[in-house]
Amino acid sequence: MRLYEPGAENEAAAVVAEAVARGERLRLEGGGTRSGLGRPAQDEATLSARRLSGVTLYEPAEMVVGARAGTPLAEVQALLAGRGQMLPFEPVDHRALFGSKGEPTLGAVAAINNSGPRRINAGAARDSLIGVRFVNGRGEAIKSGGRVMKNVTGLDLVKLMAGAYGTLGLLTEVTFKVLPRAERVATLVLHGLDDARAIEALCAGLGSPFELTGAAHLPAGIEGDAARTLLRIEGFSASIDYRAGELRRVLKRYGAADLIEGELSEALWQAVRDATPFAGTSEAVWRLSTAPTSGAAVAAAIGQARPARVFYDWGGGLVWFATGAEGDAGAETIREALKPHGGHATLVRAPDAVRAAVPVFEPPAEPLMRLTRGIKAAHDPLGIFNPGRMYAGV
């Protein structure tokens, strides 16, 4: 397969223009760590952003960072950490889940709206994304947004590109708002709760005024023999001491809560963020979003129909499932279980044949599908970017 690796935006625009002239369909790629995410794209060549690398803007006082799309995420995170700052939304590293190599890139974070456990507090990646540059399906370089948050009328291209999985254009540069890193991070751990009771505890913590930045539940057998319910707090040391004490009182009816910090706390949240309990297996992996109070009921309904392993993030509103990859990998069962509660299911990992046959993303209602096709046609009229990556025929 032909590989294009432009080193500048104008070179990328020329590659796209030539591909349009030939009718050549392009797979867009950053660090290549998530090639198994989404439907298998129907492409004939790869357009890589790997050489579009380097930080282009960093203003610590304004808490803004911008970089070319192929810049390694680790490079940006190290730069921010050196000034006591961070990306707010705690992006997932999919390498363990997919068994992939390479380096995740900042552009890919924007392209898939990559957001981890801190989303419940700081919002998703798209909420911090304030500027993009990209090449559309006509080979034109487009700039949208800038260094500050703005009210937008009309089509907000910045938010539109976040989560489009490269189906609308090749991101060449992205700009994010950042936040200060916390002086101290601690996790309250409750032990031995069943799923429903654990989610009650998480909701009680989230409903308190003590500002959780993580709320997850690992049932027995997931990262340990006993169930653990995790509530993370961050901030100044004195604030942590006070909030931990108050949260213990709020959660008293759920049992005694241990307080952990340092490497042990970090390792637990990395496991939740990266779904590492499901790494290294042949199971299909699903990511379900629903109301937090419905998470345990949805999991129980699926568990009655087929064997599955499960854990919860976002206070129970994000349910990670691992189940057999045979047949439809549980698609019909999982989506039927979700219907009474609302929400959507994404097939994160499965063999190519399954991802080609089963809707990977929740099938949208026809009015929304028509809108999706219209937006695709407006930005990529010949359909050369990641064809079929999100929906068949789009």
UniProtKB/TrEMBL annotation:
UniProt keyword Flavoprotein present: yes
A Pfam family of this chain: FAD_binding_4
InterPro entries: FAD-bd_PCMH (IPR016166), FAD-bd_PCMH-like_sf (IPR036318), FAD-bd_PCMH_sub2 (IPR016169), FAD-linked_Oxase-like_C (IPR016164), Oxid_FAD_bind_N (IPR006094)
Presence of the UniProt keyword Flavoprotein in the record: yes
Keywords, sorted A to Z: FAD, Flavoprotein
Name of the protein: FAD-binding PCMH-type domain-containing protein
Location of the FAD-binding PCMH-type domain: 1-181
